[in-house]
Amino acid sequence: MDEIRIYRRLNDLAEEEERLWARAGEEGDLAAADAARLQTLQVELDQCYDLLHQRRARRAAGLDPDEATIRPADVVERYQQ
C-alpha cells in the first residue's frame, strides 16, 4: 500500500472516529457496538501510522518502502508512547 492509499485510509478512519465521538457527545454515551467499533478504528489508525513510519524508515535507509507490512494489532498496541 503506497502513501496516498494510506493517507486516504487514515482520513476515512479518522472521519468515522469523529462521527462516533460526535454521536457520543450528542447522546451522552456510546452504544456497545459503537464503542467496539471505536476501539477497532483506533487500532486500525495505529496500524496505518505504523505502516507510514515503516515506509519512511525503509526509504531513509535506502530500502524498498513497498516491503513494509501492516503489523498485527497486538504489536502496534504495545508500543510505548
What is the gyration radius calculated from CA atoms? 15 Å
Tell me, briefly, the overall form.
elongated
Which residues sit in consecutive blocks of at least 5 with pLDDT less than 50? none
DSSP helix count? 3
Mean pLDDT: 92
What's the story with the biggest beta sheet?
none
Helix content: over 70%
Helix-strand string: HHH
Q: Could you tell me the number of beta strands?
A: 0
The portion of residues forming beta strands comes to: under 5%
**Whole-Å distance between the termini?**
25 Å
Number of structurally distinct domains: 1
Which class of secondary structure composition applies to the elements?
A: mainly alpha
Structure report:
The protein is an all-alpha fold and 81 residues long. The chain has one domain. Helix content is 72%, strand content 0%. The protein has three helices and no strands. The chain has helices at residues 3-27, 32-60, 73-76. α1 (3-27) packs antiparallel against α2 (32-60). The longest helix has 29 residues, at 32-60. It is elongated. The model has no long low-confidence stretch (mean pLDDT 92).
Characteristic key phrases:
single chain; 81 residues; mainly alpha; 3 helices; elongated
